[in-house]
Amino acid sequence: MNTKPFLHTILSPRLLELYDVTDSIVVVIDVFRATSTIATALYNGAVRVIPVASVETCIETGNATTNSITAGERDGKIIPGLQYGNSPAEYPRSFIEGKTLVLTTTNGTKLLHMALQKGASEIITGSFPNLGAVCDHLVQQKKNVILGCSAWKDRFNLEDTLFAGAVIHHIKEHFTIHCDGSLMAEEMYCAHRHDMFSFIQKTTHWHRLASYGLEKDLQYCVTENAANVLPVYKDGDLLAL
Amino acid sequence: MNTKPFLHTILSPRLLELYDVTDSIVVVIDVFRATSTIATALYNGAVRVIPVASVETCIETGNATTNSITAGERDGKIIPGLQYGNSPAEYPRSFIEGKTLVLTTTNGTKLLHMALQKGASEIITGSFPNLGAVCDHLVQQKKNVILGCSAWKDRFNLEDTLFAGAVIHHIKEHFTIHCDGSLMAEEMYCAHRHDMFSFIQKTTHWHRLASYGLEKDLQYCVTENAANVLPVYKDGDLLAL
Questions:
Q1: Which residues in chain A touch residue B156, judged by CB atoms under 8 angstroms apart?
Q2: Of A128, A175, A187, B139, whose CB is crowded by the most CB atoms within 10 A?
Q3: Among partner residues A153, A156, A207, which is closest to B11 by beta-carbon distance?
Q4: Is residue B18 part of a domain?
Q5: Containing domain of residue A189, as a range?
Q6: pTM of the model
Q7: Average pLDDT per 10 consecutive residues for chain A, totaling 241 residues
Q8: Interface pTM (ipTM) of the complex?
């Protein structure tokens, strides 16, 4: 009998509803840049990250939370009414340690709340900067896994897929994988793991963000294990395990 | 000014609604095996193929249509009440010439009807056996294109993605492509175009169908230009252009 847990990859939030997640860990992946920034802020000593869906909630939550900052961007600029942006470079230890980051993002936050509503057994966030921590946790937990690509406005993107592939490449022997999305993701990661920064420049999201002058951010966001912490969602907060 | 039309790839029917298709040709792709069988039947002289969503409609349409046959499978077996299956090997010229094929399939028919409801400018079907005809037509028309993977119960599959990649590889210089799905599909096709039959054996759908003894069917379904005809949807029928 095969007793390894299952692992599936969903390539867009729209495909989450095809899976029962009640007995699964859902890994929310939003490489450019929400989950990279979450890992970085927590790695650098943020008390917690509160992911919120709207600007209004972000401002309200910021006002109600001591020692907090609000953050969010649209089109590469800080959203009016918020204090900081989505860049991991904005959250060094000297700034973020001991603070609560209230963060609104479009794609990653949406998928996280979908997974929550569908009753996921556990929700964690993944990105290249915390690849190792995600892999170690999934292997230890021995539970079913959904690797959830946040995509861009529900459209498939490569950067989230490549991260899913990285996870699969490192932990696949511990899981039962009958999933073409996972097969493809791992193959794309293996084909580009050694030229990640040049390959990622072909993607649609890179073109979008590079036009805002964010190349350095994007290079950081595909750097493995630069902020190796595990963000776990609990009662509205993302906390470092 | 860039005057090339746009080309996008959707990896599941669930992602079709993210695109405006009213000015686009939608290519319905269901490699295993609906669109391969449609191309083969028309190539071998079928008058038309009528794609229908349900078994009931299949039987009714068959009864109302002279010189027609009804076809459809579930789990590799002919559906009770229908006459033939989904295998392209069932439709040689000696059998299908001059007949109308009334065909019910799960994934491809669903996507075709979705594209129709969304008001696609034109709907054609694509598969490896009619790759060349699809490519020639898309280049000639100079219109926006949606390559629509029928997937399996809305879950991403590799065989439809590989065919989308084949189309992109052959016609990309004629189109504007800002679409990570297309980039990935072409790369997967180029990586496997010379080992297609061995690679396809890693996919989930191959495992499902091979367990019904359909390996020979599947080999045919990844053979390029074996039935090089262009099925075009018009008023309920798929007709060879």
A1: 11, 15, 180-181, 184
A2: A128
A3: A156
A4: yes
A5: 7-240
A6: 0.96
A7: 89 97 97 97 98 96 97 90 96 98 93 97 98 98 98 96 98 97 98 95 89 89 97 97 89
A8: 0.95
